[in-house]
């Protein structure tokens, strides 16, 4: 039987940043295309969430990918536009639709943006927590000094999906759902380069042609930082769901701590960190490496026809 998966995403492929020059992440697009092409996956629904780009951009992209590359077969719903407000917890169409789906079947949730919609689901529909087989997220690190270094020019990225809605992770832990993390530690071991984009562009698959074209600006930003290519963060989450044997993981415990913010040069600026190790905390599966020959496996999965 195929795995039943719900995609929750802050899709931003090709979008310009709202608050600073440059372009947004493209890796959500790779993850979604990979799931669309996988023979052992049924995508039950797809929801949008704020994150890499505002919801006003993320949701139309979800609808476009569904229409253009999945023949309109995936129900698509508008989700959270901002982080959870614990003083005023409100549902949204995505949360309500996910709840209805969970009433009928157990689901794996791939939450590759802020976990806002998952947190809201658990707050509004706590009785459905046992219907969630697993939530797969892109977040976490081992220590507060485990920087998310981009290239060799001293730029650190934040743990964006966690940073933008810390409360949603607290809610998941409190409700006891199974959590798998595919953090920077594993994605930093996987690279896509111009050669890979050229291969995708030359295929006869419309999704590949689109993602290759829209990745050019993103690739250039990484090259400008001294990197050799870019890390396709979210595709490690989708690949784990499709073929967990290709992903090396271990059982750790997660907790939240406050430390100086490693993304700014200000000793008085602090932030929350999601730290994972063997000490006390909430049990999680922590993905940290890929099997030998992984890049070939990844490219082969992407080259499949939608």
From TrEMBL:
<keyword id="KW-0378">Hydrolase</keyword>
<dbReference type="InterPro" id="IPR036452">
    <property type="entry name" value="Ribo_hydro-like"/>
</dbReference>
<dbReference type="Pfam" id="PF01156">
    <property type="entry name" value="IU_nuc_hydro"/>
</dbReference>
<dbReference type="GO" id="GO:0005829">
    <property type="term" value="C:cytosol"/>
</dbReference>
<dbReference type="GO" id="GO:0008477">
    <property type="term" value="F:purine nucleosidase activity"/>
</dbReference>
<protein>
    <submittedName>
        <fullName>Inosine-uridine nucleoside N-ribohydrolase</fullName>
    </submittedName>
</protein>
<dbReference type="GO" id="GO:0006152">
    <property type="term" value="P:purine nucleoside catabolic process"/>
</dbReference>
<feature type="domain" description="Inosine/uridine-preferring nucleoside hydrolase">
    <location>
        <begin position="22"/>
        <end position="261"/>
    </location>
</feature>
<dbReference type="InterPro" id="IPR001910">
    <property type="entry name" value="Inosine/uridine_hydrolase_dom"/>
</dbReference>
<dbReference type="InterPro" id="IPR023186">
    <property type="entry name" value="IUNH"/>
</dbReference>
<keyword id="KW-0326">Glycosidase</keyword>
